């Protein structure tokens, strides 16, 4: 896969844990990486055999002229750099959530169309083995009419200790934007991407503002400056009558981290943790578990399917209308929480 020239903008967690291992996993060299902190970028360059390090993304685009750019930066920076990369002639894989507003998301996709390039949100959880197997099953119609779903992304104690996740100016939102987006995207994808119409939500912060919690996690943020949600819950209504409950938390007094989804239909239901189908067969309650699904390297799987689409050899795994639906719900959730009422989703 070395026929494409790859560049990375941002040398933080997403680049280190997701994108660079993904490119490495499919045997695709990365030509350049850019970060304001060139020392951090150089460490990644040494680790992943990247030839060139930049501190200015515009200079990198001009000099390298990459075919593909991975945008691995705080949410508030996605729009500018994604559009800059598209205009420079690169396809773009941008970290989630794609944007901070619907307007930004539309601008980014519009520019991709105008430049004839591919833009995809990096929805990593799409590529887990269990959900991929469940998707094939759900698409046969075995669930009947889907009427309810639940999405959970809850940590017992996992406030991010890196990056600018705890600052609204950089991230625009907290737990809902950071990990809620994963659970929401996976559930909508499994459901067939029903269009959301109305959202009622609450967001709050109970742990990030506490000095004792900050101390327990290494004092990596200032509790007095913590201004995003560490908990969020949304109730979503869809066209056709189905609904969904989304919960996301960076810290909660629960037994253990809770990540997983449940989807209920008139003929069957599924869970992603464990991957299983629940239905009736010949009048008998039946459970089919898929514990023997072959494990996938989801980081490499994401890169493989994205690059295959870039080459015109396969379908884009995360489509524009799916990303817009996720963005639509998240932005409506924050609006609902701020205004204290149910709101209609808007473009």
Q: What is the strand and helix layout of this fold?
A:
Layout lengths: L5 E4 L3 H13 L6 E3 L3 H10 L4 E3 L2 H8 L3 E4 L6 H10 L3 E5 L6 H14 L3 E4 L6 H10 L7 E9 L13 H4 L3 H17 L4 E9 L6 H6 L14 E8 L4 E7 L8 E8 L2 E5 L2 E7 L2 E6 L8 H13 L9 H20 L3 E2 L3
Parallel strand pairs: 1-2, 1-4, 2-3, 4-5, 5-6, 7-10
Antiparallel strand pairs: 7-11, 8-9, 8-15, 9-10, 11-12, 12-13, 13-14
Q: Would you mind describing this structure in some detail?
A:
The structure is a single chain. By secondary structure, the chain is an alpha/beta fold. The protein contains 11 helices and 15 strands. The protein has 2 domains: 6-122, 3-Layer(aba) Sandwich (Rossmann fold), CATH 3.40.50; 126-297 and 326-344, Dihydrodipicolinate Reductase, domain 2. The protein has helices spanning 13-25, 38-47, 57-64, 78-87, 102-115, 129-138, 168-171, 175-191, 211-216, 298-310, 320-339; strands at residues 6-9, 32-34, 52-54, 68-71, 91-95, 119-122, 146-154, 196-204, 231-238, 243-249, 258-265, 268-272, 275-281, 284-289, 343-344. A 9-stranded mixed sheet has the order 14-13-12-11-7-10-9-8-15, with helices on one face. The radius of gyration is 20 Å and the shape is globular. It starts with 5 loop residues before the first strand and ends with a strand.
